[in-house]
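Entry type: protein chain
Record version: 2
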Amino acid sequence: MTLNWLVPCDGTPAALHAVRYLIGHLAAGERRPTIHLLNVQAHGHSPDDGARSRDGRERGLAQCGSAAALLAAAGLPHELHVLAGDPVSRILEASKRFRNAHVVMGTRRRRLFGAHGFGSVADRVVLEIRQPLTIVK
C-alpha cells in the first residue's frame, strides 16, 4: 500500500529528527511512499509579490535542504513544497490536499501543551488535525 507522508520542515534539529524517524519507519516496511516536505514561510508573500516571493521560496528550499538530502541518501523520492502563510493552517490544508497524508512532525519540547499555553505549531496541529499524526520528540 502506498501512503502519503507529510513532513513539515524548517531546518531545525527537531524537523530533521522527524525525517530520520520516517526513514527508519519506512525501512521497516512500506515500499513506495509518497513523501511531501513542506516548508511554510510564516511571513511570506503571495506569488504575485515577485522578488519577495522568490526570496521566501529560496529560504524555504534552503531550510529543507538537509531533510531532502537525508531522504535522497535513503533512496526515498520526495516532493518539496514551499508555501506562505500561517504554518498551522498550511499544514492542515496540505495534509488534506495530499490525500489525507500522515503528518510526521518533530518538536523541541519534551511534552506537548507546555506550561505557557497552547502556542507552538505542534500543539496547535495536534488540536486541529483530522488526519493521522505522529509527533517525534
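Comment: The longest strand covers residues 34-41.
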